Amino acid sequence: MPENNPDSRAIAEVRVGPDLFHVLCWVASAAAVATLGWIVYEIVSGAWPAIQKFGFGFLTSSSWVPNRENFGVFPFIVGTAVSSLIAILLAFPLGLAIAIFLSENFLPLPVRQFVRFVIEMLAAIPSVVYGLWGIFVVIPIIKAFGDWAVVHLKGIPLFEGPAYGNSMLTASVVLALMILPTLTAISRNALTAVPKTLREGAYALGATRWEAILGVILPTAAPGVVAATILALGRAMGETMAVAMLIGNSSRLSWSLLSPGGTLAGLLANQFGEADGLQVNSLMFAALILVVITLFVNVAGELVLRYTQNQTAGIR
Amino acid sequence: MDQPITHAPDFFHDNKAEATKAMARSFGNRVLTTICVSLSLLTLVPLVSIIFLVLKNGLPLLSWSVFTELPPGAGMTGGGFGNAVVGTLLMVGLGLVFSAPVGILSAIYINEYAPASALAQTVRVVAKLLTGIPSIICGVFAFAVVVAVSGTFSAWAGGVALAVLMLPTILLTSEQALMGVQSAFREASYGLGATRFQTIIRIVLPDALPAIMTGIMLAVARAAGETAPLLFTALFSQFWAKSLSEPTASLSVLIYNFSTVPFPHQIQMAWTASLVLVAFVTLANILAQLAFSKKH
Known about the structure:
- Chain A has 12 helices and no strands.
- Chain A is mainly α.
- Chain A is globular, with a radius of gyration of 25 Å.
- Chain B has helices spanning 3-11, 16-42, 44-58, 65-68, 82-113, 118-132, 135-150, 155-179, 183-191, 196-225, 228-231, 251-259, 264-293.
- Chains A and B meet through helix 2, helix 4, helix 5, helix 6 and helix 9 of A and helix 2, helix 3, helix 5, helix 6 and helix 7 of B.
């Protein structure tokens, strides 16, 4: 800017000072920030009558009886936690294996690119299509497995009969598939971010490929893999449609994975359209709990991810 | 990398124990590789199954008439989902109209005007947090601000819900797009006497446009497939949309509704709608990739 020339100072000030477009961009940024605040405000104010009436007991009560105005979401909180944890247990080994597969050169590049494309396709398929597929493919498989498990795994409370098709296990299996892309993509980034020198060092000391992976590369990438798992957990907890279509939407608590269950998101999907009065307030309260849980999980994941990036950036 | 280990027995030719150990290491290596590769290829199974079933069950009913006719009533045959296709396009369009200006202008602010300011930092954090919010919460929000206020389910409400869903994607990808513009371009522009506004509009935005389009197409692809935000904001309708202030059909809600009815024809229609939806989402994703590769 030609600031030392007095003649052009007036022009320069016009150019440097805030113009209309600058203000417009500022307003848009403020609006983006306000959106989050607005969402939280609307949900809290919508939930307020239910918060006042039920208070903390809303979280620990297990009865959801709309026509008696009796609301508690304990079974749905448990269902949200259980379904997403099982999904993580199922998806973690697969996701990690694929991430390693994609970052190593076991098979030629075109094959790896194809697998990567397939994983990206999994992310692009709408949730409701997973639900439809789950109804006609996963439910019969889980039902058959359940009938077998009830007879052969007798005595284990997790597989207690009767076995239903619409069950916690069905929802978890489909959830696992849906979070696989998130888990794979972030883990793969963490693995490829490990500096080449570490791998070369391991090989130079005589390590086999897997000794290098398990002894050097994975430990270095571990925080990134942990972040991927946490972020995938956040996704699983908020996932709605496929779960609502497959889990059976029951508010009864059961130890058995073969019984129907319910999640917070599924509860909202099922009841919001036809709710009125205190039920709407209670659903808003449930939505608030869901927002708090998912925000907490996502912030934790992001923090771990940021920590990881700082860590690997330091290695040369 | 397996090679040096197979030579190891010669290297330790005096020591039987060392040789067996090296063989065991080499064997373990192969076992782990096999497990890893087979687990990776295993994931192809569900995807192939989904694609196969969507094609097998969806193709028989696919014809031009499904795009021009209204959904069949309970137990009826024939019909289509023309109103749902229109509804989906309409609400994704509304969402885009609401979210794209805010997203792109915020991205310009946080990357061009004040990258280090407190507001810019907050915008980045908020955008990250918004991506983590479950899509059904966008529906709850739109229910509270549009449906509860206007007293009716409407395309407006669906559009608002989708806009909240699309905003973080558009904002963050636009920021990345602007970051990708070389600072030499900006400096050259200032050097020639252009103002900040001229530099942004004439130099930075045109260069970043393909990457911004990628973000928009990704947001469109995501929004088109979403059901949860529309379920209790736009609801559903058996008829053609006459205005934006009445319940509106969408492809995703149609699939949800028809998947739980006991009529084979409706279920088949749900598969056909899935085929159309997956095709649309895939197309949007491919367009996003094309827009991106145009530049790089």
